[in-house]
Amino acid sequence: MINILYIHGFNSSPQSMKAELSRHYFQQHHPEITFYCPQIATSPNAAIDQLDAIIASEPNAKWLLMGSSLGGYFATYLAEKYQLKAVLINPAVKPYELLEDYIGPQINPYTQERYQVKRQHISDLKALEQVKISKNNYLVMVQTGDEVLDYQQAVEKYHQCQLKISQGGDHSFVNYAATLDDTASFFNLTLTLAK
């Protein structure tokens, strides 16, 4: 049994474009795979507890990770903890620095949930940072036009991993659908078409 756990980014949701495109792609080309994309809790520790629980719910499955932006940071933590393969899309490398600008009330534009980014969340994120990276476990895709994150931080952190650097683009990852064959290939998935 193969499961994919897709982890969306900050203030995002399973209804985001990349999550929807990923879900559709795997349903169409790999119907044998179960695709998980939960609405992630708003605090880092609650998010990790939630993701840990999902993985623990099927201990005999082969888990594969996908993470976008802050989800890429969480995916890195989980990939190192469980030694799993992960595809990271415009991953956040130092989200604890970025979130300084978001401390206070927030509204998720997808779910309309109101919540607080607290100073404690900054320390919690810092505690999840992975310094040692298992180089064979990652495919990292970045676009140089990312207006939210400095793509060079990801290039530096994951320099020993498989890296795909696209010129231009933006944080949403322009032409994302075209990358999904690369994701499936990295995961060593054999192409099957749903009838």
Notable features of this structure?
21% strand; two-stranded antiparallel ribbon; alpha/beta; Rossmann fold; UPF0227/Esterase_YqiA; six-stranded parallel beta sheet; AB_hydrolase_fold; Esterase YqiA
Structure description:
The chain has one domain (2-186): 3-Layer(aba) Sandwich (Rossmann fold). By secondary structure, the protein is of the alpha/beta class. It has helices spanning 17-29, 44-57, 70-82, 95-98, 119-127, 151-157, 180-186, and strands at residues 2-7, 34-36, 62-68, 85-89, 104-107, 114-117, 138-143, 162-166. The strands form 2 sheets. A 6-stranded parallel beta sheet has the order 2-1-3-4-7-8, with helices on both faces. It has a two-stranded antiparallel sheet with strand order 5-6. β1, α1 (17-29) and β2 form a beta-alpha-beta unit.
Q: Can you summarize this structure?
A:
Helix content is 34%, strand content 21%.
Low-confidence stretches: none
Strand numbers in spatial order across the main sheet: 2-1-3-4-7-8
Number of domains: 1
Q: Give the proportion of residues in helices.
A: 25-40%
